[in-house]
Amino acid sequence: MERKIKLLLADDHLMVRKGLRFFLETQQDIEIIGEAANGTDAVRLAKELNPDVILMDLVMPEMDGIEATKQLKKNLPHIKIIILTSFSDQDHVLPAIRAGAEGYQLKDIDPDELIHTIREANRGNRYLHPLATNQLMSHLTEKSPAEEERKLSMLTPRERDVLHEITLGKSNKEIASALYITEKTVKTHVSSILSKLNFHDRTQAALYATKVNWFKDS
After folding, report:
1. Does the chain have fewer CB atoms within 10 Å around its N or its C terminus?
2. Distances from the Cα of 201 to the Cαs of 14, 40, 75, in angstroms?
3. pLDDT digit string, tens, across residues 173-184
4. How far apart, in whole angstroms, are the C-alpha atoms of residue 170 and residue 37?
């Protein structure tokens, strides 16, 4: 039998946590291992309980969901974080994605969609509400061509090759094979790409590169 997904709930509203627990406990592959009423508790409990996935509210006392996500991604990067909130504007979506959240869903989400998001996040896949995706896309297209060119010009030719392979969904091992370099070298290039483009993970970088469509001239 496959191991259950260990889930931590973080929301300052007791009724929201109770409602989530009531529904999620009906899923055979999910186990609720704890509840947090604020970001501080979420960080503390994550260190104690080591969940696979955290459902994280954005607006909470003591520490909000963005700051909690930043701290967790810095200290416990293996934990997957799904933002579950009522806000779908850029001021909330973009900071959450930059902080490293694997998922972003609204609280009016269909229950089955929430389950799908949890399972995808546990597999390491990013899954966003369509409104959150639209905000991300809008943000990426707001930059002027000159800004985009300046940003992309920071990448070396080899880094561009690696980024191109990333947009094709290839793993480090597959990229190494395609470019005839070692996996260690691929990891070095990926780290450099993320640093130069100011992204948290390779999914963001791939999404950006695909959106601006700069490979057509490479």
Report:
1. N
2. 33, 24, 15
3. 999 999 999 999
4. 39
